[in-house]
Amino acid sequence: MTLQYPRRQQQLESLIQRLGLPENAPIQWQLLDLALTHSTLSAEDNYEQLEFVGDAVVKLASAEFLLETYPDLKVGDFTAMRSVLVSDRILALIADQYGFDRYLLVSPGAMADTAGRESRLADSLEAVLAALYLSTHTLQLVRPWLDPHFQQLSTEILADPARQNYKAALQNWTQGYQKTLPEYRTQEAGQTHNDPHRFTAEVWIQGQCLGRGTGRSRKAAEQAAAQEAFLALSRD
Amino acid sequence: MTLQYPRRQQQLESLIQRLGLPENAPIQWQLLDLALTHSTLSAEDNYEQLEFVGDAVVKLASAEFLLETYPDLKVGDFTAMRSVLVSDRILALIADQYGFDRYLLVSPGAMADTAGRESRLADSLEAVLAALYLSTHTLQLVRPWLDPHFQQLSTEILADPARQNYKAALQNWTQGYQKTLPEYRTQEAGQTHNDPHRFTAEVWIQGQCLGRGTGRSRKAAEQAAAQEAFLALSRD
What we know:
homodimer; mainly alpha; Ribonuclease iii, N-terminal Endonuclease Domain, Chain A; Double Stranded RNA Binding Domain; 2 domains; about 55% helix; elongated
């Protein structure tokens, strides 16, 4: 195999080592190379397609982690927790801990765009997750190093005292920081009593939909939407 | 192992046969049983947690399928096509072809809720995908029977003459059917020239956000959002 420049292979091997994966891990190096190439460097061969796959890989890895670690949690909690675990902000933090900046090939112009740094880091992490997944078609090269991050984050989230009443917590937050109230847009999606998807709610803050949820009651759907929004905001 | 009632094992084996999977496939029958149990039948042991995992399984399966089958497609096309492939409507159609109604344990009250049938079918298909995925931690029991559906659907989508100009196609549609125009909410998310995520757009129709997209230009982001909305609407 030939990578883009002579020392690239060594560079990628050093990342694999940092992730704690074994030296002889069956990695498709060309995919990993692609996963760490930004579109400003090559309009054809860059991480965009892998990022598309990686979006699903990180969702699956976090769902499996949550189901195994907290088998008794409600589905609303799973959904709210996953939306934090797979958020750009969290993925960028994880990528940063492994120094992705030094592995990502990017044009000097894009590098100067500091506002875009978070999404570059998050997107390239997703692409790397896809490259590792596609190397074995399992999560065996993903979960050993990603799970400890998820463990730490989910412990933090579960320790959050606001967890019991997100509508109140969200309202406190928006009143305190933005002098506005959250707006709920809630609909009855079905007619079945006790159906957990009977109601759907969105919560809007300053023209942006920040959370969605479903529930057996209007109130439950709104709590679920508030939870998603609150967890997202409180990580910022 | 003990399933909920004596003939359940046979019933589940007959579904596996219908899916075309080998008789000796390494299936976790208790998970499959759970995947086909609605929350109105058991508030504790039902498909909700598996559906949460299955949402990611079907996204991953469709992403892998699209990447393998159409390696030269643009990422915007992947995203738009996947949003159709994993939509409730399509998943319910697939579940219906395998007669999921006769495998899903559901209370008589919920059964009578015909409006909720589509989401019951889609949700239980997602849960079954999760049960099959978790049986091997690979997609080997999923893709053999799901890929042919994706193949047929994606061929249809790609043959769609509107594909080239979704903003125009969507406008024709809303003017014709609803006497309204789509509303685009477009933002500049970054500053980097040529960044495929520089702009983000949402398209709103009658108070609902029906599509989202990103692009290198305002126009490209809006086309991507229009595409997602148009493909969703044109499947209905």
